[in-house]
Amino acid sequence: MKLKDQVAIVTGAGRNIGEEVAKLFAAEGARIAVVDLDRSRGQRTVDGIKAQGGDADLFVTDVSKGADVAGMVKAVVGRFGHIDILVNNVAISDNKSLLEITEEDWDRVMAVTLKSQFLMSKHVAQQMIAQGTGGKIVNVGSTSGWQGRPRATAYSAAKAAIANFTRTIAVQLAPHNIRVNAIVPNKIGSPVGRDEFDATRPVENMLKRPGQPDEAAKAILFLVSDDSSFIIGENLFVDGGTMAMDLSSY
Hints:
The chain is α/β, with parallel strands linked by helices. The longest helix is centred in the middle third of the chain and has 29 residues, at 103-131. Helix 4 (103-131) links the parallel strand 4 (85-88) and strand 5 (135-140). The chain has helices at residues 16-27, 39-51, 66-80, 103-131, 153-173, 213-224, and strands at residues 7-11, 31-36, 56-60, 85-88, 135-140, 178-185, 235-238. The chain has a 7-stranded parallel β-sheet, with helices on both faces.
């Protein structure tokens, strides 16, 4: 088991990539703090982990609010004793153009998709430093942060910021033996914020198929395991080759 006796916090763990990460980490021996604002989704993940003999608990939290995050981190330590891994997965999208998006839309997407990663990373890193045991943080970005899009204005901006936020805190936390990396997925599983999977959703990648949540989860497992011990500050593309393609030739 690659994560035996480690404690992992996974945000947005009630669906899609976050759910698969939580289940995979549990199968690899980790104890899981399932963080989600939707109680029913989060509990479903917890129940699935326990059904397989794993250890998990639900922490319903608005990760866009500092006080809520601080309280949750304290509660996780109270429940599990320490924190070794953080996966910043939660996000929402606006799916609107510049001329359509409202100020309220912008602020909400930025708060949930970007600010949450700042708050979670800050409070968890403080705990890891206090423990003196180091740790691993993985942020979930998106190819939307690396290319222009006709919609999802705030989402694209937030995901672009995550790429350099990852590098920046990697530099700052490396002296504390905390490795920070990110994955950059493209159209994996169901769309952001939705439960349903649309098999007809158009994809443009070298594999000519949608990505599966477990494929992203396996990449995240790699980044938090000792298999990636010399990788830090990286944005790992898990996109079926999308960003390597010259789309004009397809």
